[in-house]
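Key idea: predict the complex, not the pieces.
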Amino acid sequence: MAIKMQIQSRTRNQLIDLTGQVQDIVQKEGWHTGVITLFCPHTTAGVTINENADPAVSRDILETLSRLVPAAQAHFTHLEGNSDAHLKSSLIGVSQQVLLEGGHLLMGTWQNIYFAEFDGPRARQVWVSFCGK
Amino acid sequence: MAIKMQIQSRTRNQLIDLTGQVQDIVQKEGWHTGVITLFCPHTTAGVTINENADPAVSRDILETLSRLVPAAQAHFTHLEGNSDAHLKSSLIGVSQQVLLEGGHLLMGTWQNIYFAEFDGPRARQVWVSFCGK
Amino acid sequence: MAIKMQIQSRTRNQLIDLTGQVQDIVQKEGWHTGVITLFCPHTTAGVTINENADPAVSRDILETLSRLVPAAQAHFTHLEGNSDAHLKSSLIGVSQQVLLEGGHLLMGTWQNIYFAEFDGPRARQVWVSFCGK
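Result:
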């Protein structure tokens, strides 16, 4: 059974740290060793794993991505006006896998799990599922 | 055992909706609860999940991606002339995971699964495998 | 239990073929049929799957990606000066799934698994885990 995490984004582009919440779910569910899948059920957002130490990294990632895929482009035909957010979602990806060992997330020292908002602010979800024992 | 889906792309860049075909495989195989992995065995294509409602989204994604990674670039050294397609494949990714519950794909309301062709038209495959019970 | 592969990159940007090493692990561990997860525990590197035949493809992928995300950008605020590598990591992704059947990697003819270094040279790891039987 997938566990549904609730997320509230505050700005149009935002990286929101989910690591603590995910670790809490792993513990509460008694998941031990295997792989968890994080799945973002939205088409203008995603899930990514990146540095947790310096908040400048998140800022640089979002800003550089927005320069690559500007919000307003003359050739966009989608009337909602958020085609940039749809492409960013496909570039970053809507799912991530993280290994579990002994009931703990097996990640690098500098890695956190982030919800990547590209069309906020919105109420969002990320679903977590476990495969293992 | 992986199930092999057959796909025929019609243009160089194309997003082809696989959602119905994938759901049919899930039902026929009797897969119930867990995670499916969709894997694209090609190096100039990928698999992505994005909006199903307005076809303008697919159009904008492909067009914006082609502006980011133009087909002809002076520094390309690969003689087949499709280096753009190889990079797009690595940016979008060749696999996706989707959660299953009660024999159904657990996805967001607006999400479909797409085969992403970047060097068509070609006969292609996507492989589907299940982990769960 | 995840198996930890040791990798040594030689240049700042490099694609390092892991396919043989991964196949060796699969054989040694006796993994048979299911899915393996490759996870890169670093925030300035990733894992990707792309062409194995012509080395020009790897060269073009790295060069084109570096033109998209130049190493020096005036708006970068992260003091380590490797914000380009962090974004590339999130674009390419830190994990990949590969199907296994009969103890062999189930991949396309032209596909290899690559460690994608974006801030080398460094000593790196990629972790491999198996779900199946």
